[in-house]
Amino acid sequence: MSLPVLILRPEPGASATLEAARQMGLDARACPLFAVGPLAWEPVPRAHVDAVLLGSTNALRHGGPALARYRGVPAYAVGATTAGAARAAGLDVVASGKGGLQAMLGALAPGHRRLLRLAGRERVELALPPGVEVVLREVYSSEPLPLPPEIAALLSRPALALLHSGSAAAHFAHLCDVHGIDRSRLLLAAIGPRVAAQAGAGWRDLRSASLPDDAALLALASRMCQEAGPGL
């Protein structure tokens, strides 16, 4: 019997990861532990914004009509998917990368000193370079969901869970403890070390992907499943 792989990220990302995982031959199933929805927010006057910071497609998916006022404004986006969504929203993507928003701050153009960060209620705090000001607007939230009974039952035997965020790691660990699930039976593949740290200790195996993207995370999960073998 192959090792079940649980995808905990919210939709629509969960379905995208599920399709990619199944194409790799993994015994994957989607189990979103958060529901993402919009928040009311007060736009910043366009004249006060040199550039927009985007760490997730959720900011674009849930930002609402107010996003239209920033058409043509330079944007820094984490990941190709977020960059593509930003272009579709009319933003002028001047840089994108895989290292998170902190890395983006090291690549700012000289004239980009007043930044608008569109983010979720739960987010990574940033260390700002000298002379740079960031105005934060929370445009979406991720609300935790309970563990479905069928997934709790599945976790009574060995399985592997994909961790796309620190909040997912912490929530999954909490749910395992609430349901009396033995951590030592489970393997975790995290999208990065900071995410892995949020899961705590006691797992059968806990590793971080070589790059903070979905492809690297799935490649790690595939290796962990192969090393674990069917008889785990």
TrEMBL record:
Gene3D superfamilies: 3.40.50.10090. InterPro entries: 4pyrrol_syn_uPrphyn_synt_sf, 4pyrrol_synth_uPrphyn_synth. Pfam families: HEM4. GO terms for molecular function: uroporphyrinogen-III synthase activity. One of its GO terms (biological process) is tetrapyrrole biosynthetic process. Residues 18-218 form the Tetrapyrrole biosynthesis uroporphyrinogen III synthase domain. It comes from the Bacteria. This is Uroporphyrinogen-III synthase. It comes from Novosphingobium silvae.
